[in-house]
Design brief:
Distance between the termini: 34 Å
CATH architecture of the largest domain: Sandwich
CATH topology of the largest domain: Immunoglobulin-like
Strand content: 35-45%
Helix content: 10-25%
CATH superfamily of the largest domain: Immunoglobulins
Largest sheet: 4 strands, mixed
Shape: globular
CATH class of the largest domain: Mainly Beta
Number of domains: 2
Number of helices: 4
Number of strands: 11
Structural class: alpha+beta
Amino acid sequence: MATSSQARFTLHVPLDASAVKDFKPEKEVKVIAVANTSAVQEQQVRLSTDGKGTANFSFASRPGVLRVAVGPGDATPEELQNLQTISVNVSARAWGERNSLTLSPVTISAYYWWWWLIWCRRFTIRGVSSAPTAARYPALRYAPMTWIGGGGGSLRI
């Protein structure tokens, strides 16, 4: 992100989860802005109790075409770019002659909010593996494992 002394262009991305029934801001939301040059900026946003928040991005030069994606705070920028989540395309023309652009609020539906709460859960599994692969990998027999599941999932040993 460009520093404030370098920032000539700013993008404001309002977020709105106010339609989610029984909304509680338990989790931060990650917003990324991907420029045509593949440069990625990310912001963590803590939504207010009424489900609103804003991500702000700064650019040293006119950003051109942007893709803005929104997802759970613990998702990586790569996950937000490659998995099904909320995204908005911003055309270069949307900037016009302005140096600051505010998008229409990005609505976070209940479907996405509840999915994001379980997207990247962390589990620790302890025990002995009886699978045939355990013989080939002795560390699997005794090491505690942390499984990070949800969007793409992975197994870390």
